[in-house]
Specification:
This protein has 320 residues and is an alpha/beta fold. It has 11 helices and 17 strands.
Length: 320
């Protein structure tokens, strides 16, 4: 069952917390279970003839990998952060790929699914590399947070007040494997790519492509991918049902529809939390502004309703 040549394309950004929810010490078996539970909007779009790319986060997972590195460093040489991004993209992609294929088979579809380890081009002089803001890993105890600070690592409080490690997160410039992804999408293959935001690389004038130890925000990478693929829909699935005004106050209220101009004005006013909702809104508005397409931000279990315009926050370029 191959979609027609003019089939629309959707890029779905699946948060790493969707597979390993905040506050839960998820085993790999828990993560497989959460992965299977996350597939509704993906399978629904595929069964309705859409081409689909899935981009996933890896914040909890890559943080756990750093812990494994630290615990085992006396026995095995630690791997750098950039390599761990690629590694988690492989095994998380494996979970998503297997789960999607099983769901499609149960639905009677023979569409193929593939995971592509993806490199994403960034600037080697991006200021974000020296100003860590990207949260990774699980909440830390006060003792562990202080220990990491003494070792020279950055630790900050996240939107829930938990101390967590933060790393540099450069702005994605281009998807290195875009041509390969486009060929796969055009033949109807469901593609899992830019895992963990993609492995960040830069073009060294002497060595050629080189990796950087950082984590790219997966929502920003998804927006670049959606823009350059000519996608019609960018769906960002997270752990809240919508974008809220006055978040964390008694006056908080969901925003069901925003224009690019409205979202930009709120962002300039600091209405969205850095390291949490702000990157998602910026990714959505950048996609809508550049393409005229529709971007939706919502919670995982409302994804199917959000595609129909019945849930979440929709960001569009239109003023009406």
């Amino acid at each position: 069952m191959t979609p027609p040549p003019d089939a629309p394309t959707a890029v779905i950004a699946l948060g790493g917390n969707a597979l390993a929810p905040a506050g839960e010490r998820s085993t790999i078996y828990d993560q497989f279970r959460h992965t299977r539970e996350s597939l509704g909007p993906i399978v629904d779009l595929a069964m309705h003839g859409w081409n689909v790319c899935v981009v996933h986060g890896n914040g909890p997972q890559v943080g756990d990998e750093l812990v494994r590195n630290e615990v085992a460093r006396a026995e095995a040489s630690p791997l750098p952060l950039g390599v761990l991004v690629a590694a988690t993209a492989g095994w998380i992609g494996y979970m998503i790929q297997q789960s999607i294929e099983n769901a499609l088979r149960r639905a009677g579809s023979t569409r193929e699914v593939v995971t592509l380890i993806t490199q994403v081009q960034v600037r080697a002089d991006d200021p974000a590399l020296k100003e860590p803001t990207k949260f990774i890993g699980q909440p830390l105890s006060a003792e562990r947070a202080e220990e990491l600070r003494r070792e020279g690592h950055e630790v900050k409080l996240d939107g829930r007040g938990n101390a967590r490690r933060v790393v540099g997160s450069p702005v994605p410039q281009a998807i290195h494997e875009l041509k390969v992804i486009r060929r796969l999408v055009e033949r109807g293959t469901l593609v899992i790519c830019c895992g963990g935001g993609g492995a960040p690389i830069y073009d060294d004038p002497v060595k050629g492509w080189e990796g950087i130890d950082a984590v790219i925000d997966k929502d920003l990478a998804a927006a670049v991918l959606a823009r350059d693929l000519g996608a019609r829909l960018l769906l960002i699935l997270t752990d809240v049902d919508a974008v809220y005004a006055d978040w964390g106050t008694p006056q908080q209220r969901p925003l069901r529809r925003l224009t690019v101009a409205e979202a930009e004005a709120m962002d300039r006013a600091g209405a969205f939390g850095e390291g949490s909702m702000a990157p998602k809104v910026r990714a959505a508005l950048d996609f809508a502004r550049r393409t005229g397409g529709r971007a939706v931000i919502t919670i995982l279990d409302r994804g199917q309703a959000a595609v129909r315009g019945e849930a979440g926050t929709t960001i569009t370029a239109e003023t009406a």
